Amino acid sequence: MDLPETTFLGHSTLRLRMGGRTVLTDPLLTAAVGPLRRMVPAVHPAALADVDLVLISHLHADHLHLRSLRLLPRDAEVVVPAGAAGWVRRRGVARVSGLAVGETRTFGGLRVTGTPADHSGHRWGPRLTHGPQADAMGHLLEADGLRVYAAGDTGLFPGLDDVAAQGPIDLAALPVWGWGPSLGPGHLDPSGAAEAVRRLAPKVTLPVHWGTLAVTGLCSVPGRIGGRMRELLVHPPHEFAAAVTAAGLPTRPLVVEPGARVGATV
């Protein structure tokens, strides 16, 4: 089957060509994000030159990364969760607009629908009440007879069945880990992501949100802690793919390294 031109740039960043648009999801492009260090090669500037649409799933700094947004063409439209556009605009992003969960907008030949997610929507974390807040979301992209679901950050939630009910999904990009030795609420691990595949029934699934970031210095710590972190930079997508296969699901899992392009035909 054919897929949109897709490159996994690391963490939750996908570069997609659909409907005549070049789209980035949750661009994370710098060598560091706060205390987190990029563990894979930097994104080549050529991958960014023609980006004209950016989809942000939620406000956490490893998804709405202001320094990365400033590396993109200034005429790229940045679409953030509804209610956050003013906060982002005041921080120097030239073109920014909002999208609500359940809302559909058209960008040229591309339709984008905001989908629910089970994840904190607060900029600074789930336990704070001050500062910017907007619902976390995923995105359903439709163009050229193809449908792509980019889940953003999420745990399992009943609304996944509603996403699947909107029509067959050709490619589902699902998070399978994070950037640390453990996961908090509102995240998928390999087995949870495999359950999401069972509910969504995509033709192809691409594991994301793995292998890209780690706390500075943690991978070099001797003993069990450092060893576990080094393993977590590699193992989660393969555990996910094995779980999908072991469950006998018809979905084809594709594991590609950060920076690699997904084959146009699989």
UniProtKB/TrEMBL annotation:
A Pfam family that the UniProt record links to this protein = Lactamase_B_2
- Metallo-beta-lactamase domain location, by residue? 21-210
The name under which this protein is listed is MBL fold metallo-hydrolase
**SUPFAM superfamilies listed in its UniProt record:** Metallo-hydrolase/oxidoreductase
**Membrane-spanning residues where?**
none
Where does the source fall among the domains of life? Bacteria
Under InterPro entries, the record lists:
Metallo-B-lactamas, RibonucZ/Hydroxyglut_hydro, UPF0173_UPF0282_UlaG_hydrolase
